[in-house]
Amino acid sequence: MILFATQALGGNSDTLRSRAEKKGLFIGGAMRLYKETLDDPKYFETFKNEFNVIVPEHVMKFDATHSSEKTYDFSGGDLIVDFANHNSMKVRGHTLVWHEAVPPWVNQYKYSRRKLKAILHDHILSVVTHFKSKLLCWDVVNEAIGEDGKISREGIWPRIDKGKHLGDYIKNAYRWAHQADPDVLLFYNDYGTEEINKKSDGVYNFIKDLKKEGVPIHGVGFQVHISYNEPLNEESIRENFKRFSDLGLLLHITEMDVGIPKDVPLTPPVLEQQAEQYRKVFGACLATPLCQAFLTWGITDKYTWINQVTDMTAPLLLDEFYLPKPAYRVVKSLLD
Ligand code: XIL
Q: How far is CA 221 from CA 83, 141, 225, 295, in A?
């Protein structure tokens, strides 16, 4: 429960969206298409009033679009694209190559490298072609680099590559996506990379090499799944964002949320501390010339993935009643 919620959002023309658009920025969140949200008109109302970009939480992932070898299902993604068009919003495509959300027909079988490569090729070509000219960008590859800054062996996709060629599957993913839709912007997306550290060094060096080799990649996404009291070094974030921007890459904050442990009461100081985390990251984005979009993973504390997968809760800008939290006000004031 939020103790000090003030006025509701409704009927207000001074929104995050209106302010972001004056600055030429994208502001948005992940959209969930489950019964709970489909039965909640306020959810969609809030999306279109407050935000101008949507990223699907599930429906464009591999297991949702390609649940068996010969079956493609784009219905969820199409719904989101329709909703976005109808309301003059953009859509970020998420995601083509990830170690999670891989359906059993891919994960459980022992394919040759060649067959696995053909599966990924077919997937990328089919999905990107279906959404051709309808998206702002694609998170082509998600979470492929480890804490140590090296390309990870986690999941099935790295098995496409032989030892010293590890990483070729990533390069090909970008080439295939570009062939299918030469106009869509292609991103690499990861978590734990907002500050300068081993992992962000690895991502930086890898993308730099891709660019040198002429692999089509245009942007980098920072997920920023963090907690309200973890130390965040603002200087380091700004420096880090700047070095990616200096490579000529677009930057998107793609999935920010700031969790609070379920046993910590949501008092004003705790919510202020949460807002401060948003201030540091969004402020760094605004200070970076090529930082173009700021998205949270969900829009209301009513529906957030962290409730299920962690012992944390209440990570977003709006509370479970869609009332603005201090974090909302901080983000809005930065858009002044
Ligand atoms: C999450 C969804 O929110 C969950 O509902 C699902 O169970 C797992 O995936 N990084 C990502 C997102 O790139 O796709 C993840 O989304 C959260 C972490």
A: 23, 10, 12, 10
Rounded-to-integer distance, Cα 80 and Cα 55, Å: 9
Does the annotation count 276 as an active-site position? no
* Overall number of domains in the chain: 1
Q: Is 223 in the pocket of ligand 1 (CB under 6 A)?
A: yes
pTM over 0.90? The answer is: yes
188-231 confidence digits (pLDDT tens): 999 999 999 999 999 999 999 999 999 999 999 999 999 999 99
Q: How does pLDDT run across 99-125, given as a tens digit for each residue?
A: 999 999 999 989 999 999 999 999 999
Determine, yes or no, domain membership for 246: yes
Domain housing 203: 29-334
Residue 21 belongs to some domain of the structure:
no
What's the token pair of residue 87?
Answer: 């309301």
CATH number, domain containing residue 315? 3.20.20.80
* Cα angle 152, 154, 156; round to 5: 120
Distance CA 288, CA 243 (A): 10
CB 245 within 8 A of CB 290: yes
Distance (Å) from CA 100 to ligand 1 centroid: 9
